[in-house]
Structures are given as C-alpha cells and as structure tokens.
Amino acid sequence: MDESVQWTELGVLPESPVEKQKNSLRHIIELGKALFFDTRLSGSGKISCATCHQPEMNWTDGKEKSEGHGGAVTKRNAPTIQNSWVYKKLFWDGRARDLQDQAFAPIISETEMHSEMPEVMMKLRRIKGYRELFKKAYGDEGINPDRMTEAIAIFEKTVISRKSRFDEFLEGDRKALSNSELRGLHLFRTQARCMNCHHGPLFTDNQFHRNNITFMYDDDGLYKVTHKEEDLRKFKTPSLRDVARTGPWMHNGKMNSLELIISRYSTARYPPEEASPLIRSLGLGSKEQKDLLSFLKAISAPPAEFEKPVLPE
Amino acid sequence: MKKVLFTLFLAFFAFLANAQPPEGDAKPGEWYGEKVNPEGAMPISDAMAKLSGGKEEVDGKIKARVVEVCEKKGCWVKLDLGNGETATVKMKDYGFFLPLAAKGKTVVIDGEMKFRTTSVAELKHYAEDAGKSKEEIDAIKEPQKEIRVMAKGIVVVE
Predict the structure, then answer these.
(1) R_g over Cα of chain A
(2) Preferred mutation among A119, A141, A218, A228 to probe B, highest tally of B CBs within 10 A
C-alpha cells in the first residue's frame, strides 16, 4: 500500500443500508421496482432502466456501450447497479450527487430513454395502478418527479451482490478458496497494488483516478465536471464485486477481458506518464497474473434470484 | 478534537460540493459541457429567422441571453428570443449543468435548435393535471410550437 492512501480492510459483503428499514419502505421499494422495469418511462415506450441494467446479467447489459433511443449509442459503459448505494458520486464522471439525482438523467437524456419529465408524469398519472402505488408509498396519489426518482433510488439501494466464495472464506470456511485464489488474494493486497484504489468490503475507494489503461484520450471524465486540469480523464473507481461477470470493462467498455486488463497493468510499457502515481507497472509473471484472475473470479458471484415486477395497468 | 473538527470541515465541503445546481458565478469565459469558442456565433434572432423561413434545424453556435435557470439542478435554461418569448435549452446526454448565476448572462451555445410541437391531446392532459376547468381545457384547439435547443456546450460571454 502507498502511504498516501487511507485504506480500509477488505471484508464480508455488507448488507444494503435500507435492509433494516425494508419493512417500512416496502411500498416505496415496490413502486421503485415497477418504475425501474417500466418501458413507459421512455419516449419510444421500448426502453426501461432494466434495458441496460438486467438482473440476470448482474444488472449490466454486457455491452461495450448501451443502445438507447432509436439505436443511439451511449457515451460510456453501463455499470452494474449492485451495491451502488455505496457511491458518494454517481456516473463515471461523478456528476450526480446521489442515486436519486442520477435517476433523472437516463430518463431525460435524448440518447437514452428520450423522455421529458412532464411527459412521463402525464403518462404515469393516467395509469390507475401507479396512482395506487404512489398512494401506498407516499400517502396520496401525487405523482411527481421527486417521488418517482426517490422510489427508483430506494429500490436500487436494495440491489446488492450475492455473497461470493471470498465471503464464505472470510466467514470461516477455510476451504472456500483454492490455493491459486489465496495467492491471488495475497497479490491483490501486496505486489499487485490493487488495494490502493480497490479497498474496503466493496473494493472501491469512492475516488476518481486516471489509469489511462485503454490508451484512449477521447473522454475528459471528471475534468468535465470540475474543470481542474488535474482531473483530466479521471474516472470513478468501480467496485470489484462480481467483476468477472460485469464486463466489458472500464468507462468506455473497451477492455473485453480481465486477462488483458491484468496483463496491461503488468507490462513495462504501462502506465503512461500521465497516469495516477498510484499506478505502476507491476511486472507480474504469468502465474501471478493467473492467480490474480482466480481471485477476481472468487469475489464474483451470480446475481441473487430476482422476481421481476408485474407492471401496473 | 482536532479529528472531529477536521471531519466537520470535510463534511462542510462535501455539502458545498453536493449543492445543486453547481456553484459558480458564471463569469465571462466560464464554460459548461464541451468547450466552445464563442467566435462566429450568430445572434439567436438570426437562428430564429432561419427556422421561421422553413429551415428544419439550425446547427451551430448561437448567442443569446439567459433569462431563467432550472432552480433544482441547473439542467435547463431559457433564452430570450427578443419577441417576448423564450427558447428552452436542454443539455446533451443530460451531461452538464449551469449555476443559477448564469441568469441574465449572455452565452454562446453550440448545439441544435429546432421547433418542438406539443399536440392538442398532450396540452389537454397537461391542463387537466394542472387543475384547469373544463372550459379552459375545451378551449385548447391548437398544438403548441416552442423553440428547443440541444446544447453540446455553453460558454458565458457577457
């Protein structure tokens, strides 16, 4: 670990912060779940949040970039919503302050769901089932953008990873990890320097870094938001929970295998000069690279079972 | 105690950083979204004339005065069209926001400007939702045309 890094130890998968209030929030969660899966929120009536965040694909779409309105392609890769409650800023460039703030964007963005808030409100107010859901959730039938996005955000906070073999190991099952995975864990914490950014039980420092791993300079990242030179091409550190199941990787989806990512971090040519000082060429041998990959697979689990909602009529 | 104070200090700045719309005084030269070179921008009245003359959309740099900024997020602004009406600007990909201080400033916007029509049926729905009387709703017979701009970038010039 670099001394400059204030890190926290890896740990067992934390429960969602709404878990303890699940009962009192159940109607809001039910509403948010319906909204999340409802294509009527989009201008074309064909796209919902779940189009790019599919439960059976660990809440991603498995694509480099996502397909939005009329075949329009998004600018960046759609991340999973699992454990997204942990992020202090949302989007790869951190331009949204929380999940509720974030939820506005895809609905209104012309490349994504291509809707307008007044239109969405008008449509929802004319669906009896929604009037009932909003009433159950909020006490009256008032349907407005704040309630809608809050419900979506609270639903999203309930979506977390399933425990992985790494969690079983931490909880005392010594046999849960193979020797290769254990070596990978050790590398992850030491020579491979992963922990400098991917630490804590959810494997993220909630910060922004420039890794330049794709050698592509077409997206200014955090700089777009802060206008500070030092933030040029910095992107949010994603959680590594389920990483083996949420590719392709990086903000632009340009890395299509974890082997490639690990080998790039390992080569002498990498990193380019302007990358974060936390990132150094690792010089890992092929066996070590394999061990590291095994560990990444050991912190990846299939998504928890999920029942899609029946949409209100 | 020092630690507590430091945490409070951090929390305070985190709070400031999270305030929306973004902080800022929108001085000349400040920019949002893509960087825009203000040179060669056409006045919004010229762009309007092109649209009124039958052009479907005007793509390029438009200069106009901001008369309103979305108070919640800074995610849209309204421009003075000079004829008592306004044009609504939305940000491409919902990708950037303007501070409230942009109100009253003259800006150059790089984007696409075109008419957007709201149908009679939609207008009636909106009127209904706004609690208008049956007479008022029945009186809606014409679709509404408004000017929309989809902005890639905005720079403050005056």
Answers:
(1) 20
(2) A119
